[in-house]
Amino acid sequence: MSTPAQIAANIANAQASTGPRSTTGKATCSKNATTHGLFTTSDFIRPGEEPLYEQNRADLLDQLSPVCILECNLADEIHRALWRLRRCGQVEAALVPACATDPMQDATAARTQNSVDRARAQAHRLLHKCIAELRKLQTERHFRNEFFADGTELSPLGICDVSQVRKNMDHEVSASLRQHKLDEINEMAAAFDNNRRQVDLARAKRIP
Fold first, then answer.
1. Domain ranges of the chain
2. What is the 8-class DSSP label of residue 48?
């Protein structure tokens, strides 16, 4: 059982070992467990890659042309996915020189390859999902610009799919027209049946 002196010493040691306190120290410490940078919560940028990272992001934003918060956020996610795929390729390429035999026959290399495969699959899912969502948003934006006159207040529409709303309205109008046409046909049929009954009654009266 610990003596009071040992307990006091443990408390003093714990207070002296609180870890980094500065912002820089905390940021450095948070990367201590980073090995390949495949599953980091933030983009893994090695020293010297900052200009390339920023240039890639600028080029991507220029190509995707996002114009609102949602579109910009999706564009950033696409950039993150592409950067992670680039990192997967780098880690995978480093496996071959590091192994004297087939990398998949080396236990350590095989584990790294499995991590690369998982990271690549995650990045691909994120990439395709964000591209699809961004395409839908931008298609909707262009449709609104073509469908509505300049100066139309569009904020009450939110992010609703105007083309789908219009399609549903067209279906409702078509259904209404079809029903109206059917009602006319039914009225004509009823009038025809009524006239035929009257003719039959008249003929029956003339028969002695």
1. 35-148, 160-208
2. T
